[in-house]
Write a structure and sequence with these properties.
- It is a single chain.
- With 256 residues, the protein is mainly α.
- The protein has eleven helices and no strands.
- The chain has one domain.
Amino acid sequence: MIRRQYLSLLRWSCREAWRTRFFAQTLLTVLALALLAGFAAALAVTEAAHYRAMLYAAGLRLALVFSLALHVCASVVRERETGALELVLSRPVARWVWFAGRLSGFQAVALGALVLGVPPLLAWGEAGGVAAFAAGLAGELLIAVTAAFVFAIALDHLVAAFTAFTAFYLAARSMAAILLIAGGATLDQSAAATRFCGAAARLVAYVLPGLDRFAPAAWVVHGPPVAALATVAVQTLVYCAFLVAIGQIDLERRNL
C-alpha cells in the first residue's frame, strides 16, 4: 500500500514536469548555452575547445540549479493553493509518504535534466573529467532540489520560497570567499567587530554545504582532485538528510 502510494506520487512529479514542458525548456536552454559557448570560443586566441567546455559547464550549472528550484517551488505552492495537497492528505496517505514521493520525483526530474545537459560536454572535454563534473553536479542538484522543496513547504509562497533558496545557494557558493575576506590581512583582527563577524561567518560555513567545491567547470578539462568526489558524496548525503529532517518536522507540525 505504502509502496504504491510512494510510486504514484513519484510518477506524479515526473508527469508534472513533462506536462509543464520543463524538459523542453531544458533542451532549449542547453541549445542556447551551446551556441553561446561556441560563439565565445570563436573569440578565444588559444585553447578554444577548453574555453568552450568550461563556459558551457559553468552556464549549465547555474541554469539547471535555478530552473529546477523555480520548478519545485512553483509546483509545491500551486499544489497547496489549488487544494490538491489537502485532497491527497485527506485520503489514507501519510504525510511522510507524500513528502518522500514528491521529493523523490523532483530529484528524478533533476537527474533527467542533467542527462539532457551533459552530452555536449562529451564532445568538448575529457571523458573522465566530464563524468566527474556530472557526478558533482548531480550532488549539487539533489541538494538544490531538496532545499527548494523544504523552503516551498515552509514559506508557502512562490516569491518568498525562491528568494530564500537563492540566498541559501549564493551563500553556499560564496562562503569560501566570505571566510577569506573575514580573515584577510586588510582587516584589524584584534577588533571585536572583526572577531565577531569572523566567528559568525565560520558558524554559517559549518551549517552550509560547500557548493563551490561540488562541480567546478575546470573539472571538465583537468579532472577533479582525488578526494573531491568522496567529499561531494558525503556532503550530499549528510545535507540532504539534514534538509529532509527539517522539512518533515515542519510538515508534521502544520495544521492542514
